[in-house]
Design a protein that fits this description.
The protein is an alpha/beta fold and 259 residues long. The chain has eight helices and 13 strands.
């Protein structure tokens, strides 16, 4: 069985990923892999290609070139629905929540539970609310009520709602794009506690962040992108924050250790 750089069985592997917008090359032949239960930090300056790669892995956009394997099988992640069917959930920086809906409605958005016979179906509001309450209590000490309106939640509570989707749907891979960008110190701690609970459940995590202490604390491996190319892929315990910054800025050109 093939293994990631962290010695774990490979969950997802992408090879030669390119993405062009006319003459602009957003990604220039990226190789990326993540093992089962591994947390990989994906870092780089603005415009380095991090979010573009995540959008490709989540099915939001399609690569110009390249191939992807999931659990060692070739896959075409042609939409976010396909990604979700594989167990890939994405939490974007803006969280993608609907302010006019309740917490439970947001968690089940697009995958609502129903009951009834034949063509006559009704939303299982009570069942969804109970399931949302359970998963939220297991994620956050500051969990919102499942029937609360999202518009009245704090940043940390909104983050818990977004992460609850990943836990509820028993995802195998979570893509977190700047999950703490708009949070204060205490809410960042609570959000990362929720991420640790996902790690404890064996969920593989791709963490995009500019927060170097967070990267060093939460990940087992760091991948650095610069101008659409991968310039670093190293075990986290082999680098310092300054090492990572030197790769991001180009003071050090490359550092590839992970196989």
């Amino acid at each position: 069985m093939m293994q990631s750089g962290a010695g774990r069985p490979i969950l997802l592997e992408a090879r030669g990923i390119k993405k062009s917008y006319g003459a602009v090359e957003a990604l220039r032949g990226i190789d990326f892999r993540i093992g089962k239960g591994e947390t990989v930090a994906l870092v780089g300056d603005n415009g380095a290609g991090k979010s573009t790669l995540v959008k490709i892995l989540s099915g939001a956009i399609q690569p110009t070139e390249g191939e992807i394997e999931f659990e060692q099988r070739p896959v075409a992640i042609t939409s976010t629905d396909v990604a979700r069917s594989l167990g890939i959930e994405t939490v974007y920086q803006d969280l993608g929540l609907c302010d006019n809906l309740s917490v439970a409605d947001n968690i089940f958005l697009g995958r609502e539970r129903t009951w009834g016979l034949g063509p006559l179906k009704f939303l299982d509001k009570g069942g969804m609310r109970a399931a949302a309450e359970e998963v939220l209590q297991g994620l956050s000490v500051n969990a919102p009520r499942a029937d609360a309106n999202v518009s009245g939640l704090s940043g940390g509570q909104r983050q818990a709602v977004a992460l609850a989707r990943t836990k509820l749907w028993k995802s195998s891979l979570a893509l977190l794009d700047e999950p703490t960008a708009a949070l204060g110190v205490q809410e960042t701690k609570r959000a990362m506690d929720a991420v640790r609970r996902l790690q404890d459940k064996g969920v593989a995590i791709v963490l995009i962040s500019h927060n170097m202490p967070l990267v060093l604390e939460m990940s087992q491996r760091v991948i650095v992108l610069r101008h659409g190319a991968k310039v670093g892929d190293v075990p986290t315990d082999a680098v310092t924050g300054d090492d990572i910054v030197s790769l991001i800025t180009g003071a050090r050109q490359t550092w590839i250790e992970a196989a």
